[in-house]
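Shift notes (night). Ran Integrase catalytic domain-containing protein while the centrifuge was going.
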Amino acid sequence: MAPSDTNLKMLYAKRDRIFSRMQSISSQVRDMDSKSFNADAFLCDFETVDSLREDFEGVLDKIILLELKANPDYLVNYQPLTTFEDLLGCVKRAAKRLQSQSQTGDHVTLAGQHRIPKLPPIEIPEFNGDIKNWPLFISSFRNVVHNNTSLTDSEKLYYLIGKLTGRARSICAGITPSAENYSLIFDLLNSKYEDKRLSATAYLDQLFEFKPISSAKPSNLELFLDKFASSVAALKNLKVNDLSDFTFLHVALKKLDTDTARAFESYQSLNKKGCEIPLFVDLVSFVRDHIKVLERTSSVPKAANKGQFDSKLSSTQAYTSSSESTVCIKGIGGSSKTIQGSVEIKFYSRFDRNVNYTMESLVVDKITERLPTTTVDASLLSNFEDIALADDTYFNPGPIQLLIGASIFPHLLLSNKVRGRPSHASPIALETILGYVIVGDAPVRVASNESVSYCCTGDPLDSTIRKFWELEEVDVPSVLSPEDKMSEEFYTSTTTRDSDGRYVVALPFKGDVNTLGNSRQASENRFYCLERKMQASPQLKLAYDNIILEYLEKNYLSAVDCDSSDISYFIPHHGVIREDKVTTKLRVVLDGSCKTTTNVSLNDLLYRGQNFQGNLFHIIINFRLFPVALSADIRQMFLSIGVRESDRRFQRILYRFSPQQPLQVYEFNRVVFGLKSSPFHALRTIKQLAADEGVAYPRAREIIDTSLYMDDFVYSIPTEDVGISTASEMIGLMKAGQFELVKWTSNSQVVLDSIPPSHRLPGVKEFDESNQHKVLGLCWSPTSDNFCIKIDTPIEICTKRTILSCVAKIWDVMGFVAPVVLFVKLIIKQLWLSNCDWDDTPSEDIVKMWSRFKEELPLLSHIKIPRHVGMNVDSIATILGFADASEKAYGGVIYFHVQNNNDSTIRLITAKSKVSPKKVVSLARLELCAILILAQLIKNVVVACQNRIVFRNIFAFSDSTVALCWTHSSPHRWSTFVANRVTKIQSYLSPQNLYHVSGKDNPADCLSRGLTPSQIINHPLWFSGPPWAHLDVAQWPAVPFNPSVEPEAPEEKKQTFLAATLNEKYPILSLGDRISSWSKLLRSVVFVCRFVKLLPHRYRMSASDYEFAELLILRELQRFYFRAEIAKLKESQVCSPAFRHLKPFLKDGVIRVGGRLRNSDLSYDEKYPILLPRKDPILNLLVEYHHKLNCHAGPDLLMALLRQKYWILSARNLIRNRIHKCMPCFRLRPKPTFPEMADHRSCRVVQSAKPFIHTGTDYAGPFKVTITRGRGIRSTKAYVCLFVCMTTRAVHIELAGDLSTASFMGAFKRFLSRRGPVGRIYSDNGTNYIGAKRKLSELHEFLSSKYHNTEFGNVLAENRIDWSLNVPTASHFGGNWEANIKSLKSHLYRVIGDTILSFEELCTVLTQIESVMNTRPLCRTLSSDPSEPLALTPAHFLNLTPLKCLPAEEIDENLTTLARHDLLDKLVQSFWKRWRREYLHTLQSRRKWNTPVDPVVVGSVVILINDNSPPLHWPLGVVEELFPDSTGVTRIARVKTAIGSYLRPVVRLCPLPNQ
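Came back to this:
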């Protein structure tokens, strides 16, 4: 740090201290009138104010000079001096007044005058921003301070600021508290709070928000007087002109939405500034105008804040209705709630209506259960009775109607807290803007039969277990973080050694220690809990006392006197008992993560430091290499390192040896167990010790990194002599740093004898469990020099929890029994796949597997694995590895082949397995993953043994030829999955070391299928490898692998070769395919031209820019299409015949039309338009642009407009094409598609037994008739029911008096009685009458009525008649009867006109018209010869057959006189022959709709024709189903619209263009 920076810090501190001193003196002026004021002390302080002023000015000058030297642009500011002088003036004036009172003696009165009693000082009430408190405050302040001429503005400002709190004080924010600003601050307060309407609104809010009194208690009635009655009195005192009108206005504004109310207030402030309080009529007038504004504009929907939730009950009580929503919210444990909608909520403080918040909340049926879950014992919380609670019924369970989200909650919290009694569990009252809220544990009344549940969060165990069956991923190298670098630099710069050689370290703080709050209270509570445990367990008490006494004796711990002003940290502590420890079974652990009152712990402020922890895998490998094994332990490793004295205050603990004693404060002088930085300090100090003292102990320095696992020393030595020297050097090296290496054990008695007895520990060595590894398991017997597996008997109950617990207790870091662990992993996978819960009993097959495993599990304790792998100094070592996979799992195993002279030894070194993933993966991929695991294991083993032994060769075997083919080839050939793993395998292991092995000789097969404990004990391959592994290496079946054995290996990348072709189209023209409008195309070209510097850069695009871009586009278009013509024009040659009539010429590189208008007065572009080709995407954009620009002009007008500047070849076709595809134009005049006319129905072209077998029916009318003839008789309605024979076109007409079912049934019965039986009836659907003229509405209702259909259906069934309905709006499907209806109306209107006939007269006329229609020729007369037969009419077929007849056989044409009785049949048959010969062929041709069209398809967007509304109001729909006829032509479709689905004929659908 620069010296100037240090000086500045000192000067700033000195300036702040002087200013603080002056503030403390001036604060005494405020208490001059109180009894506690000490005049002598004040006068003593007053003697120093002049020197304080000189010192302050001098310090300020020095600060400014230094700042100007450091930064010449520094802004000089002497405002602090002005403020200091204001305070000084107040102090001097007060001192002068005090001195004058003491000289004159205020207590002495003149003779004859009465003694004036001394009154208490006048207290001005504080003002917190509540408008209801403003009148009292401002009245008191004006009378006492503001209007007091004896006070200066500085003194008035001092009194004013001192009485402002809360939101009222925020007005002063940013304003310098000086005398000249007093008027400004006072005026600001008046302008904000001197508001009669605001005050009246606050009182009305208090009246309306007052809750009804539930019981007649004095406190409740007093609250009524204090709140309600006082508000009424204050409201009347405001003297509002029309209080009732103002009340109506207030209620109306509350009922309106927020936006409308805000708009009204803005309107008032802008337009009616002179009116203090608006009237209710003003609001009504504004709302009327606002409705018109909203109808012309569209509203913007609000987005709901998803952080808030509202119960359905409370949402129904809100001011705004909820909107629909389809969101599902998930919570703890995966429980979900369906969102009912969203609602806008506005909630208020129960104390101040001005405090309110508005938020968007999601509505659910219920947020949670009633809270609190049981009644709180409020008698034990008397300290909360005198504070303003947000909920004064907090102790009774109640429904939770609103959940406030994190976006609002932080703004509600304030700083104050009220704590409960320390004698029992008590919550804390947190101050919020809404009032105090109760948080924490509370005393409750719990019945004897109730239970208490405890909920806590834990590690994501599910995700951890799923790693069992995740695929092996590629390793990522670790990177040193910036914090690790900082901690290393801090350690290097602060670590020292004392006179004894002990290392003294400093706590590596990364944060400000001033952020630590009070930690003593939490530490005391934790100690009291520990003390109760010790009182219950005398053995624990004795052990704890002994440890504390030992720490005091060894100076690990020191008693200190606690100074409350010091920043320190009290660490809670507890004891951890380890029964498996031989010596110290109790360890004191400190909790450095305990939070203080500021929610910051000591560990939060410390660096963790780099992880120097030794690799347990490497240490065990080294431990097994050589014959002599050594093991030791560093005694109290952490406590052997000192801590810098200034940092010891952060390692304080509380303890006492008896509950009768006071709590004593102790400080740790050494590194303690429980701080985040302690492991780093311990291991980094050991490394520093090796670096500092390693010269004297070279062997110890060499092995310390590969032999130390935290405080455990584990190593193997080739000979006993080397072992003795190694032990000696390790003890000496540790002693140099004041570490003690004890608990020595070895399999060599000679080495043990060389170690002092005090440092030895006979017995079995057990590896301590670590936070970085799983628990329990690996034991070593020095006597037998073997490892064994320690097994705990599993719990009898079979659940997922107990199975997982059993697996976790098998500590097998080296994989000695990996197949057994895999067996249980497969069971766990089955549990997960079956979705079995943690404590549920799994399926029967899993229970059987688990029972078998549990019974055999103790057999693992009989397995003995030799520690020594057989390595000596001159041994030859070879690594032998195997990999295998199955559909269940995959893995790898490694053995050491050690050759000593002619003796070979095979030892299992390590193994690892993985369960195959749930997603199906090919077996070849799993085999590749197994080889990857094996390669990683080989690499780790080689790294662990480096500098100790050299391996002659490495053999890695796999029985998968596909995986070996992949690994022996370049990774680029394979897919990504295979290539990534092959790359990693080849980085770990050379492909020449990978060989093929038979499956029966592969020990890794155990890792891919799993073994039970009984199977692994006697397995022939697992512990010793295949039989040939014991032979000489030269005799192994290791043949180099040839990748050609798999000529077509899977997962090979398919290479695709792309051929590049030259694109003749120019870049500018290619924009036409990607841009949707002519304007965008021009702007894009302008930007391109600016980029290539063809146009200058301007702030806006000018007309010249657009003109340049247009000419460039058209020039490029002509160059592409008229390349040959441009070349001819440049050479002054004659153009092609297609262009000669236009006489083109070249001008500025653009072809223009010469024409014959040179002498006209038209503009240049009109006389010589630009020549353009027939079609191009750019021309489409140009035509569409001018079409829209000219209000969607028609083809002729648009062509005339385009010809003013452009001459497009074959322009009419292009223009019509683009107009046809214009969507607005098509919507105005939509055109349906007409499929090819269908063939006639069979009933039209097949002879029937008699007329009217197939009948079509329809209604016409209404017509006006009278019942009888006479004067004054009113007319009524009548309807015509028409029946048409579909075969002969004969008609039958009936008159119906009304549209009732009885009337129709009468007409139908008369028809049947006269014309005989009917086989099938055809009619319209009836919906063609929807929206028709009003006179047809009754007809439609009759035909579609349910009663009519039911009654008529019964008659049809009784007479064996079928009914066939056409599709709605398909009137052309019933052309036969529609044409006859037309003829009927034509004859009727020509005969009667507007004459109103009687019912009988109309019936007569209709019968005559029927006769006329039935005499119409079915076909044209073939000849005018009178000898020819008359034209065939429908009348020929009527009444020639009895009403009930039998079919007659065919009669020979040569009728004799003897067969006169057959004459009638002969006449009828002759009519049918003529019908076939003369009439049927007239139905042959299709007179319209004879051109095939593109059929509509499912998904087409169409317009539905509606004859009763203009085209722009015809609905849009999507075709969702087609109904083709027998010829495959679609004539009917189902169309889905916004209001439903409908069946419509295709001719009533208009497909939109551009589909």
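Residues 1250-1411 form a domain with the Nucleotidyltransferase; domain 5 fold (CATH 3.30.420.10). The chain is about 40% helix and 15% strand.
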